Amino acid sequence: MKTRGLIDIAELTTAEIDAMMEVAQDIVDNPAKYSEKCKGKKLATLFYEASTRTRLSFEAAMLDLGGSVIGFSDAQSSSVSKGESVADTARTIECFADIAAMRHPKEGAPLVAQMHVNIPIINAGDGGHNHPTQTLTDLFTIRREIGHLDNLVIGCCGDLKFGRTVHSLVTAMSRYPGVRFVFISPEELRIPEHVRSEVLDANNIPYVETTSLDDVMGELDILYMTRVQRERFFNEADYLRLRDSYILTPEKLKAAKEDMRVLHPLPRVNEISVAVDDDPRAAYFRQVKNGKFIRMALILKLLAENA
Amino acid sequence: MIIGNIRDGIVIDHIPAGRGMDLYSYLKLGKLDCEVALIKNAESGKRGKKDIIKIGAPIDLDFTILGFVDPQITVNIIENGKRAKKFHPALPETIMHLIKCKNPRCITSCEQELPHVFRLTDREHGVYRCMYCETKAEK
């Protein structure tokens, strides 16, 4: 039987995602019940580039399940620095671990690893391509904060061109009925054509595009913020002109619904004012915590499926 | 220009003008010992101009790539001076080893031994994407 990991969120059915969220919620409610579920199991974290949040989230998830963790946190401290291929590193790790989470700067690296081993590989981010556990985190956060995933108006703001988290979120949320998107970005950083044609138009998902956050704030149930990065602009003048339009402040938030929620994949730089953090609508640090719970549910699912 | 009829062989017709040389390369026709003619910018009733390739021997060729380049290309199998078979190449589900991913961030850009594999993701528009990074294949 082919080993099943998680490389792309599209590999999961809606029923599977919903079932995982049920387990994650049960973990939140009854943590003691799960504290020894992975006793004797090892998670390898293969991080070829630095990532504080994701790596620690995976490690905390496995430790809270009673398992243990091995791995490396940058390519320099592994055999990669000697020129070892992803396939060979994966084959080696397979000898020691029961499951692995891999972050790699090259797109497709976790898929290559999965093709060569019989332990589940979880894609913990491959370049600008996929980051399925971030998407699961986003979905679980919306469910916990709002109570449901259907019939929502989701605003995505900032860098929608290069922001992989937005592309994956749009793909995943498109499965739920009654979802509508509002894309708020500078002209230079619009949602890419392939997401519009292959995800939105192909599934008849309604959406609008705008350059003004203020104009649409009051419509939104979810505001998913991303960072507008200086290096994406052709010139400094454009960056300075557009930057402030996409910074969320308490003043801008006044126009939002009382039960709207602000999400952000983090790290944040300046796109959300720290003054927003105390607003109950700011859900981004709760989102980080949810990431651990949904990763626990994912580890349990993959280990059970491949036992 | 006159290029004679062939007795036994293959005529690949209705190639989009300018793409004949690419196909000559993809199909590795330069390695054949038999007669091969590449006609560029021939007159075409439908398209104005087209390219044509004539191969003067009944050889086995993998036509997978033709459907990727343009499903309107026609392949004519010639036997005893007559057309024995004519078909449009199908869109293959997978293309292996024939085209390379040009995304510098793709894992294939740094691990040279990995096979370059593209999968058909949109049959209506003939879109192929890299199996690893999902970058759209350039035609």
Radius of gyration of chain B: 16 Å
Query: Kindly, what is the distance between the CA atoms of the first and last residues of chain B, rounded to a whole number of angstroms?
Result: 29 Å
Quote the average pLDDT of chain B.
91
Number of helices of chain A: 12
Global outline of chain B: elongated
Description:
Chain A has 307 residues and is α/β, with parallel strands linked by helices. Chain A is built from twelve helices and nine strands. Chain A has two domains: 9-130 and 288-305, Rossmann fold; 133-276, Rossmann fold. In chain A, 40% of the residues lie in helices and 14% in strands. In chain A, helix 7 (164-173) links the parallel strand 5 and strand 6 (180-184). Chain A is globular, with a radius of gyration of 19 Å. Chain B has two domains: 9-87, 2-Layer Sandwich (Alpha-Beta Plaits), CATH 3.30.70; 94-130, no CATH class. Chain B contains two helices and eight strands, in the order E-H-E-E-H-E-E-E-E-E. In chain B, the strands form two sheets. In chain B, strands 2-3-1-4-5 form a five-stranded antiparallel β-sheet, with helices on one face. A three-stranded antiparallel β-sheet of chain B has the order 6-7-8.
What's a quick, concise take on this entry?
The complex is a heterodimer of chains A (307) and B (139). With 307 residues, chain A is α/β, with parallel strands linked by helices. In chain A, 40% of the residues lie in helices and 14% in strands.
Blueprint of the fold:
The complex is a heterodimer of chains A (307) and B (139).
Chain A: H1 14-29, H2 31-34, E1 42-47, H3 52-64, E2 68-72, H4 86-94, E3 99-104, H5 109-116, E4 121-126, H6 132-146, E5 153-157, H7 164-173, E6 180-184, H8 193-201, E7 207-210, H9 213-216, E8 222-225, H10 236-243, H11 250-253, E9 261-263, H12 284-305
Parallel strand pairs in A: 1-2, 1-3, 3-4, 5-6, 5-8, 6-7, 8-9
Helix pairs in contact in A: 1-6, 1-12, 3-12, 4-5, 6-7, 6-12
Chain B: E1 9-16, H1 20-26, E2 36-44, E3 48-55, H2 64-69, E4 74-79, E5 82-87, E6 94-96, E7 117-122, E8 127-130
Antiparallel strand pairs in B: 1-3, 1-4, 2-3, 4-5, 6-7, 7-8
